[in-house]
Specification:
biological rhythms, 31% helix, single chain, disordered N terminus, Hemolymph juvenile hormone binding protein, alpha+beta, To_sf, signal
Amino acid sequence: MRQTSVMLAVLLLVACLEGSFGAFPTTIKVCHRSDPDLSGCIIESVNDLRPRLASGRISDGFKIPPLEPLELATVNMDRGAEFKATFSELLVSGPSKFKIDNLKVSMEKLTFDFNIFLPKLSFKGKYDLKIKLLLLNIAGVGDLTGVIENNQARVKLICEKYGTDGKEYIRVKKLLVRIQIEKGRFDMKDLFRGDPVLSQAGNQFINENSRLFLDEITPGLERSLADTFKATANEIMQQATFDDIFPA
């Protein structure tokens, strides 16, 4: 299920970093910080970049992990004795269909605030969970598939400048993610140690109460995504100076 938010985070990362690629391939439109419509320029740059993000081939000499399908590392969630889950070997389809809007940029404060919308995400992978949903204890280990639709996130990046070797760079100081997922459907094989009757009943119960399930995992997803993509963003941005990323 976390795939949902992870996708949102990937897009959020793309949205704010598209400028950071400016020092690299010429296939990416660079946005000047003096542009009176800087927000519009960034959105246009991201939209132009979308097909290349899907394949990961930004240019002949610059590649990134593809968004289609997106491979996700293991994600652990622990909210106490009543909610422990691990999702691994995740493959997610649909993230390249993202849309970005309502982008607000402040070059003085170095903040980037925007929305991301993902119409549909399909995923598969492995799960290991032990949760309590309402009065039912649900546990299992096995294969996971699912679909999550109408996913939205509000993302805010707070950046700062810093100097190294006489040069000025930019990094993400803080990254905030707020996620909303309209609906989802999940199929977890081998719930209740593979008992077919209980497994079917467990999946039915989760899907009938998907809103509760989504609400349980969302806070942990938001924190996990914020930490992960802050680190990734900074790793990318340290390769170019502030003037390379956002020329005057």
